[in-house]
Design goal:
The chain is mainly beta. The chain is built from 3 helices and 26 strands.
Length: 292
């Protein structure tokens, strides 16, 4: 079968703050050629590269805000995040944990540095993804999936050279811990220096990887360093990853929905009319209540 080649390697752009607690590099849709339609179902990717936050008496973060029409996935690599939403979901996610929130028909949520982490300060590193929902599921009931590090299924690679944590989808017969509305794969690939793994996604899947730690070589030719992203061409299926030093790599592959996308701020729907309806419903208080 044909190799899935790298289309381009992307360096992190200048960071900006989301609220006062998330210092992020935006890859999707901020990078040219990586807009929502091209990367669907991954319609946003914000990456808080490793950053030291000093102690703070008041937890930093983002106050109450709405979402409709997609899911948010937050992966904590360093530090701890506290989340709450109007559907009753929430809690603290620590290093290695994942929170998967389905906004669906409408939800209010807030996310902050966890209280004790704020008081102590420390290294903070996380990824937040927005995963698009199919038109038929845009107005599904909101829900929350909290995946603790120790509960995420994992496949051990040969010779003890690493593992593949399967957050969603499947790898080598190991099924992910999260349920999804469309076919997608989401892994944390952890390799020791010299370790390697072979992965495979269908040719038409929109696929990428983000190097969280270390440096890797893809298909024995493309070097991808810490905090850099590799976007794959939509052709071929198999690709290999070899660690030139100990590495942690977020790997994503998803079937595009091939539906129209209308986006405005925290709402992602299929038509402009649906966006206007979302704004009206939010203003009428139909997204529930969440204390600030």
């Amino acid at each position: 079968m044909k190799t899935k080649d790298v289309e381009k390697v992307v360096a992190p752009q200048r960071p900006h703050y989301v609220g006062d607690g998330f210092r992020v590099h935006n890859f999707i849709p901020g990078i040219p050629g990586m807009d929502m339609q091209r990367m669907d179902p991954f319609i946003m990717l914000d990456y808080n590269s490793k950053f030291h936050f000093p102690p703070s008496a008041r937890p930093k973060g983002v106050g109450v805000h709405p979402h409709r029409g997609f899911e948010t996935v937050t992966i904590a690599y360093k530090g701890r995040i506290e989340h709450g939403d109007s559907s009753g979901g929430g809690g603290v996610i620590g290093e290695g944990d994942v929170q998967w929130m389905t906004a669906g028909a409408g939800i209010l949520h807030k996310e902050f540095h966890e209280t004790n982490f704020s008081k102590e300060g420390g290294e903070f590193q996380m990824v937040q993804l927005w995963v698009n929902l199919p038109a038929k599921d845009k107005m599904t009931m909101p829900k929350y999936q909290g995946l603790l590090k120790d509960s995420i299924p994992s496949h051990q690679l040969e010779n003890g050279m690493g593992s593949v944590e399967v957050i969603a989808g499947e790898y080598n017969g190991v099924k992910g811990g999260a349920s999804t509305f469309s076919p997608l794969h989401m892994y944390n690939l952890k390799l020791k220096a010299g370790g390697n793994a072979t992965l495979s996604f269908p040719a038409h899947y929109n696929s990428l990887l983000l190097v969280i730690e270390g440096r890797i070589k893809v298909n024995d030719q493309d070097v991808v360093s810490t905090d850099h992203l590799a976007l794959f061409k939509n052709e071929g299926e198999h690709f290999s990853v070899q660690a030139e030093e100990d590495a942690v790599v977020l790997v994503l592959g998803g079937e595009p929905l091939n539906e129209s996308i209308a986006a405005h701020g925290p709402f992602v729907m299929n038509t402009r009319q649906e966006i206007m309806q979302a704004m009206e419903d939010y203003n009428l208080g139909k997204f529930g209540y969440l204390e600030g």
